[in-house]
Structures are given as C-alpha cells and as structure tokens.
Design brief:
mainly alpha, about 0% strand, globular
Length: about 400
C-alpha cells in the first residue's frame, strides 16, 4: 500500500474516478511529450527520461508540468513547485498548469496560495471536476464549510456517484456536527470507492465517536485487510475494544498504532490513560509526554503526569507539573496544596532554584484529596481532517 500523504484522495484522484492519477490533467498535444506510458515502471526511470527530455528541450513547458506532476505524486512538493513555476513562466496560458500548482501548494499547507492558483485556472476557462474538488477540500481545510459544500455539489451534479466528493461532503457535515448526514455520505463514499482505507477509517472513527463500536468494527476490518500498516485503523480497532469493555485488548492496539505512527497522539494518550487507571505510574510518563507534545487539549494530561511523577518519586518534575497546573487553574486549592506538599520534600536549595524559575506559588491551603478525574472521550469532536500517514 503506498504511503498516504495528507489529502491523498485529492492528490491521487484517479482512485476516486478522476482522470490521470499522477498526471493531473491534460497537456496540449502540440507539445513534444515523453511517452509516459513507457516510463511508469519506476520513479527512477520516470525521472531519468524526463530529465533527459528537459535537457534536450529546456523551453518545453509541458515537460516541466509533467515532471511536476510526478514529483507531486512522490511527495516532493518543493521540486514540484519549482517545476510548475518554470512551466508557467514559459507558458502561462494552460489552466491545467495552475491546477497542478494549486495541488502542490495545498500539499504544502498553503491554503490561500492554493485558492489563488485555482482562481487563475478558472480565469483561463479551466473548470474540470477535479478543480472543484480541490477548491472544496481547500475551503474545508480553511473551515469555510458552506463554500466547500457549494463546490462539492457542483462535482456531484456532474457525477452523483463521485466517491471523493461524497467523502469530503461527509467530512464537511462531520465538521458541522451533523452526524447523521456525515455518516450517510461517508457510507455512500465507501459503497462507491470501497478500496480506500482512509474513507473506511473516517467512517469507523465517526461511528466510534458516537459509541457504535459494533457498526465500526466491519469497516476497521476491511481497512486493515487493505492496509495492514495504517496506524489510524489500529487506533480505531483499539477504540472498538475499549468501547466494548475490553481495555486490555484495546491497549495492545493503541500501542501498535503508536509504533506505526509516532504522530498519532491519541494512541499515546489512550496508552497513558490505561496505565494511569491501572496505577502503573512508571509507564504513564512516556506516552502522555509524547501525546502532550502533539496536543495541548487532551483531558487531564497535566494532572495525570503530575500525579505519576509524584507516585514514582520524581519530585522535581512533579513540583514543576503541579506549579504549571496552579498557573493554569489559579483557583484550584488542591493543586496549590500539592505544590506546597511536594516542595516540602525537596532540598531547600533545589526548591529555591525552582522558585526563581517558576515563581513562588500562592500560600498553600489544605484541601481534600481530589477524586480521580472523569475523562471526557477524545472523540467528542468530529474526526481530524488531515489524513494520517501510512507506511509500507
């Protein structure tokens, strides 16, 4: 299974019925082109033949555009942008060149620049469905949900079974918190393009978020059969077990997900939460620290880390963690008391140096020990828009 890049459904549209996965639109036939059908046996041969052709015809805009399309397919966005800019400098008339540029800028996360390049394509009379799909997805990423829906409806008016448009429409409704419509469109996308693990993941994720693990499980199984190293699906599988009351099985799937994709902070969070609930404090710190580096909005991470440091006798990081909680929740008497209590166990010189850096806490006020927190599920929000990566 190829490595997933952000928004792979858009960059490689042929999987969902668009023309030319990797070719990103037609180039004028009057130009002398490399026979791309003959160079698809591997990226090295593709690059070698295109490089040679460009060396022989350095002012052939179409060759730069084709090489940009291959670079984009390979995830080499900086090279792709250089090539497509060179193509446009040589010939700024073809609208399809601006579509390649817009896709490249979108892959780099430059939303406004991508929209501007797409507008240039439209000004040249170039309005294929894949341009509308890109505009929809980019507006979705920019949280312009109604605009995204308008462009998706244009695609669906031409092809009511367009799986990518149905997929993105499902994500729009998920972002709008219209769960019923989001599930309907994601199911429709899967029914029409069932070989896309990302669509299966998003559907399973949303079903889990709505406490329907039995409905999510078949989609997870289908996705893993297609892409057994897709970390997000292993996380989904963990949630199915978790929501079904099987935490031990769940944590094994979370651990596997975190190993496959170190950026999947939800998996690390769930692993840390499992160990904390089972009072295995020495195993809490690693996964929760990694999770907090990726997201500052995870429920009760600071409290769990502070408590775990204290339980395993790491007093200095425990004091720092409690002090940070006092700053975050200045009216919380329990955290103020904990700063004082842990500080009493530190050597005086060490405590004085900590106070110099972090400031002296308020006067302690003893408070009853707080009950263990009740954790809000991570899936209270719609699924993240950015497609997680998946490696070979």
């Amino acid at each position: 299974m190829p490595r997933f890049r952000p928004f792979v459904l858009l960059l490689c549209g042929a999987a969902f019925g668009l023309t030319g996965c990797g070719e990103t639109g037609p180039v004028r036939t009057s130009e002398v082109m490399v026979n791309l059908g003959a160079v698809r046996s591997g990226p090295e041969l593709q690059a070698a033949e295109l490089n040679g052709a460009i060396a022989r015809q350095p002012r052939n805009a179409g060759l730069y555009a084709r090489r940009a399309a291959f670079d984009l397919q390979a995830g080499q966005t900086a090279r792709a942008l250089r090539d497509i800019n060179q193509a446009i400098e040589l010939d700024d008339a073809p609208g399809e060149y601006y579509l390649i540029k817009a896709r490249t800028l979108r892959a780099q996360g430059q939303l406004q620049a991508a929209l501007a390049a797409a507008a240039q394509a439209q000004q040249r009379g170039y309005n294929p469905p894949e341009l509308h799909l890109l505009l929809a997805e980019t507006n979705l990423a920019a949280r312009r949900h109604r605009t995204a829906l308008d462009y998706l409806d244009r695609v669906l008016r031409e092809d009511a079974d367009h799986a990518a448009a149905l997929f993105y429409k499902g994500l729009v409704y998920a972002a709008l918190r219209d769960t019923a419509q989001a599930l309907d469109f994601l199911r429709a996308s899967v029914a029409r393009g069932g070989q896309q693990p990302e669509a299966l993941h998003q559907l399973a994720y949303l079903l889990n978020a709505n406490r329907q693990p039995a409905a999510a499980a078949p989609y997870v199984a289908r996705g893993l059969a297609l892409s057994p190293r897709y970390a997000a699906l292993w996380y989904d599988r963990g949630r199915v077990f978790d929501l079904s009351g099987q935490p031990d099985s769940a944590v094994r799937n979370y651990v596997r997900a975190a190993r496959l994709d170190s950026t999947l902070y939800r998996a690390d969070y769930r692993v840390g939460l499992y160990y904390y609930r089972n009072r295995q404090y020495g195993r809490v710190v690693g996964p929760l620290t990694r999770a907090r580096r990726r997201s500052q909005y995870l429920p009760e991470v600071g409290q769990m880390l502070a408590d775990s440091y204290e339980q395993i006798g790491q007093l200095l990081p425990a004091w720092v963690a409690y002090r940070q909680l006092v700053r975050q929740f200045p009216g919380n008497r329990h955290y103020t008391y904990k700063v004082w209590k842990v500080g009493q166990r530190l050597p005086g010189s060490q405590l004085d140096s900590l106070k110099l850096v972090y400031g002296a806490p308020p006067l302690p006020r003893r408070a009853p020990t707080a009950a263990r927190p009740s954790f809000e599920p991570l899936e209270v929000r719609p699924p993240a828009l950015v497609t997680p990566t998946n490696s070979q």
